[in-house]
Amino acid sequence: MKQPALRADVAAQSFRDAVARLMDDVGELVARTVENGDEQRPPYAVVPRSAIEVSVRMNLETVRNSLLAGSPVVDDRDVEALTIRVDERLGQGLGVEDGIQGWRKSISVIQERFLEIATEQGVDAVASLNAVRVLWQLSDLMTNQMAALFRSRQLTGALRRSQLRAEFLEKVLAGGLPVSEVHARAEELGLDTTIDYLTVKAGTARGASVEALRRRLETRAGDLVVVADGYCFGLLSGPIGVLAPEDVVALGPAAPLPEVGASFELAKRIHDWMRRHGVRGRRRIEDIGWRLAVDRDEAVTSLLLRRYRAPLDSMGEFGALIWGSIRAYVNADKNVARAAEALVVHQNTLRYRLARFTEITGANLDSTDTLLEVAWALAADPDEAT
Questions:
Q1: Is 164 inside a domain boundary?
Q2: pTM for the full model?
Q3: I need a surface site. Which of 5, 55, 248, 273 has the fewest CB within 10 A?
Q4: Are residues 132 and 280 both part of a single domain?
C-alpha cells in the first residue's frame, strides 16, 4: 500500500517542481510573448517591454495558484491587478480586442512552456492534460473579466469625454473662457484652433430624433455638436451636408474659437425666428436680413402694425383681401402683373385694392420709407408667408 502512495507523492512533487520552474522562466516567457505576436496586428506592439514583463509576472501568479489548486483561482487581488492593467492599456490606445488578444497570447505561451517543462520533469500525461484544462478554463474566465472591465472603462471614458465636450461648448459659446484656456481645452478635444467655426443651434419637428440630427450635423472630425434640452448646439468646421425635411438649423457666422460667443447669440436669434415663422431647413443671417430685426424691436413693430394693418381689421374679409394683395404686391417688387398673377385676379382688381389701401391708411406706396414700413409690418404679421 505504501508504494502507490509513494508514487503519487513523487508525481505530485514533479508537478509542483514543474510549476516552480515555470515561475522562474519570466525572461523566456516575455521573449516568446513579444516574438510570437501577430505580424499584422501585434497584440501589445505599443506596450513597453517592461510593462509586458510585469503583466507576465502577474499572469504567472494567477496560473500558479490555479494549477496548484486544480481549478481556476481568481481572487480580489487578481481582479485589482487586472483592472490596473486594463487602465494602462486603454491609456496606451488599446481596445478590448487588443487586450483579449494579448491575454490569450500570454496564456498560450505560458501553457506551451509549462508542457515543455512538464515533459522534462517527467510529469505524467493525466496531470499535464488536467493542467491544460485548468488553463483553458482560466483563460475563458479572465477573458470575460477583461472584456467587462474594458467595456466598463470605455463607457466611463466616453461619458467623461461627452461631459467635457458639453462643458467646453457651454462655456465657449457663452464667451466665458480666456483665450489661452479656449485653445488649451479645444486642443484636448481635437479641435483645430487655427480655423474659424460656424456656430449652430438646431432642432427638429416634434417626434423626430434629435440625436439623428446631431449625427447629420457632426460629419467631420473637427465638428463638435452636443444635444441638450431637446436641441443641438455646437461648432462646425465646414458647411452642412444633407438635412432631413424636419430639421430646423440656424447658423451663426464663422468666427475664431475665442469669438464664437457673438456668433452663437446670432444663431439663437435665427433659430427663434425660424421657430416663430415655421421655417425649416437651414438659415443664416444672409438668408433673413432685416427681417430678423422685426421681432426684436417691439416698439417699431407695434407702431407699424397699428398704422398699416389695424385699419383693415374692422373691414373683415375685404380687409384681409386688401392685406393679402399688399403682400403679393411687395413680394413681386411692385410689379402689378406678377402680383395679380400670383393672386389669380385681374390687374385692375389689384389696382383697386392698392388704391383702397392708400385711401384707408394714408400710405404712399411710391415712397421708399413707406414701402419699407409696410414690408416691416408684413414681416411682423403672424400670417406672413415665409
A1: no
A2: 0.56
A3: 5
A4: no
